[in-house]
Amino acid sequence: MIGTRLKVARTAAGLSLRGLEARIGNLVTAQAIGKYERNESVPASAVLIALADALDVSVDYLAGDQEMVLEAVEFRKKKITSRREEAQVEAKVLHLLERYLLVEDLLGLRSVEWHSPCEAPYPVVHDISEADDAARSLRDHWSLGNDPIPNLAELLEEQGIKVLAVDSVKVDGLTARARRTGKSPLPVIVVNANDWRERQYFTLAHELGHLVMEVAARLNEEKAAHRFAGAFLMPADALWAKVGKHRTSVSLGELLELKQVFGASVQAITYRCKDLGIFNESLFRRLFDAFTRLGWRTPPYKEPYAMKGEKPKRFERLTFRALAEGVVSESKAAELLGVSVHELNQRMEKPPAAEHEAAAI
């Protein structure tokens, strides 16, 4: 039954029923498409092909029988979005995730199982400062020590969390659980593909906080997740060693050096220093006044030494592997990655070089 997948693909494309009707040249009516989505009728072969072409998916995708839904979806928003915009992002996530799981299945790989760490001493956070303890406990559980994390997306995927990047104007990220028939829920974290890398890393750590912490009802979950993210990316001992325990002044140059050490934004570093009592309220306010004057607190949030955002690499690597092992054709691999066959061949021959953008004050 194609209903669920057709609706997901249409929503991901940002089309209404009438919009899809127009896209397929009025081959069938919007009412007929609605019946397909509700599984009240089945499209003829010619209509199915037209729908697949219009939505830039394969017929095999629409005709697939895997049922998957997103549960417990939590958005990290830049600004309030409409339910329609949220549904469009959710549809994109489902579409990407289905491709990801398909490649794993084709290669005979079992998805890495996610186990929420039971060692965390504060599964229920009653005070905002306990988010630091949860972050430290998780670092201990994963044997990370106090060192900066060079590739957070890779780390999370190794622990059984699927990490995806989507283009979105209004959503920084989200966390959810993908439920599949007869299988355990799969945790998913999504970042905005257009954000700077330091913002993506903070989003990943923030959403990780939502996954591993249970926050008491009287606390603000977003603030607790923010505190967790700062503590996970910048452990107290590491920051004290670099900055000291009490400062009455600090230069922007020093903050920018710290940014390159921890991979976090200057603003996130400043918040973390305030949380640890390194910066007092007066210094914190002076710094944020300066950040505002410099334009770092408004879109596109570009600080000096801003690193270009990146997409998680595991799905692409697995697709290349499937192609090399003859499990999929070139056209199928290109379809999975959402690129042309020509671009696929270019990536196989010479992967895009890592790009970093920097600016000086």
List keywords for this structure.
four-stranded mixed sheet, 17 helices, two-stranded parallel sheet, disordered C terminus, 361 residues, 6 strands, single chain, alpha/beta
Folded structure, characterized:
The chain is an alpha/beta fold and 361 residues long. It has a domain at 1-65: 434 Repressor (Amino-terminal Domain). It has 17 helices and six strands. A four-stranded mixed β-sheet has the order 1-4-5-3, with helices on both faces. It has a two-stranded parallel sheet with strand order 2-6. The radius of gyration is 23 Å and the shape is elongated. The relative contact order is 0.10. Residues 354-361 have low confidence and may be disordered.
List the helices and strands and how they pair.
Elements lengths: L2 H10 L4 H7 L6 H8 L7 H11 L3 H5 L4 E10 L5 H24 L17 E2 L4 H12 L10 H7 L3 E5 L4 E10 L5 E7 L4 H16 L1 E2 L5 H13 L2 H8 L8 H11 L3 H10 L5 H13 L20 H11 L5 H8 L3 H9 L12
Parallel strand pairs: 2-6, 3-5
Antiparallel strand pairs: 1-4, 4-5
Helix pairs in contact: 1-6, 2-3, 6-15, 7-10, 9-10, 13-14, 15-16, 16-17
Percent in helix: 40-55%
Q: Any idea what the CATH superfamily of the domain at 1-65 is called?
A: lambda repressor-like DNA-binding domains
What is the terminal-to-terminal distance?
58 Å
Give average pLDDT, whole number: 87
Name of the CATH first level of the domain at 1-65: Mainly Alpha
What oligomeric arrangement do these chains adopt? single chain
Q: Please state roughly what percent of the residues sit in beta strands, choosing from under 5%, 5-15%, 15-25%, 25-35%, 35-45% or over 45%.
A: 5-15%
CATH topology (fold) name of the domain at 1-65: 434 Repressor (Amino-terminal Domain)
Name the CATH architecture of the domain at 1-65: Orthogonal Bundle
Shape: elongated
